[in-house]
Amino acid sequence: MSQIKRGAFIVLEGCDRCGKSTQSRKLVEYLESCSIPVKYMAFPERTSDIGQVINAYIKNKQELNDETIHLLFTANRWEHKNHILNLLNSGTTLVVDRYAYSGLAYSVAKGMSKQWCMSPESGLPRPDVVFYLKTNVATLQNRGQFGEERYETEDFQTKVARCFEDIYEMEKSYWQLIDASQSQDTIHDSLRQKVLEVLKEVENTEVNVLDW
Ligand code: T5A
Ligand code: NA
Fold first, then answer.
1. Is 72 helix (H, G, I), strand (E, B) or coil?
2. What is the ipTM of this complex?
3. pTM of the model
4. Which of 50, 119, 131, 181 has the most CB atoms around its CB within 10 Å?
């Protein structure tokens, strides 16, 4: 009996404006051009009921306390858990723009307890690889539209960057560091290569679980 090879669960992470969306789009186009089944997803997923509340909060149109918005971001991932697993197990590779790591980094950057923030993320599907697009905050500030959304200030992004460093140390085994100050094409070339390796590696494995 022939078995469907599962897709890879690929996540891009980093501070605001580090180039996640640009690189996700390029990666999806590339995989499509190789006839590899692939789907782009982004968190927050802003179309669900929960996603719409998150969107209003990010755009400074709604106030919520820190615990509430943290749990809504997490719930937004949980409400897509089965969809993610079904796609992966039916052979579709997912390129996902932010995930639980953003949930942790942005909340801890506000001064919340790391342990408290990690707990509700535990049990979600764990990515096969996280590409951490890292560069200094000054570089990010000079990119388009920086400063329009809630978290886009130099001071806050500096704290977020520190949290991502901490998460990188913790999750190193499946994180790959990418210098996000390079040109878009250079970053894309390096992601392409790494993704083809990951696709091969995960073929006959089960999807991992985030064990926070
Ligand atoms: N959040 C998110 C939480 O607090 N908790 C959570 O659990 C989650 C999931 C919205 C906010 O929500 C927070 C984090 C965020 O503050 P979002 O929807 O991902 O998250 O945010 P967006 O505003 O859509 O995206 P970003 O601001 O993060 O931007 P990207 O996707 O990283 O960057 P991108 O690709 O749009 O590029 C930005 C600009 O830079 C240029 C691009 O052309 C563009 O103008 N650029 C480059 N310039 C030079 N060199 C390069 N290599 C470049 N790459 C891109
Ligand atoms: Na984005």
1. helix
2. 0.96
3. 0.97
4. 131
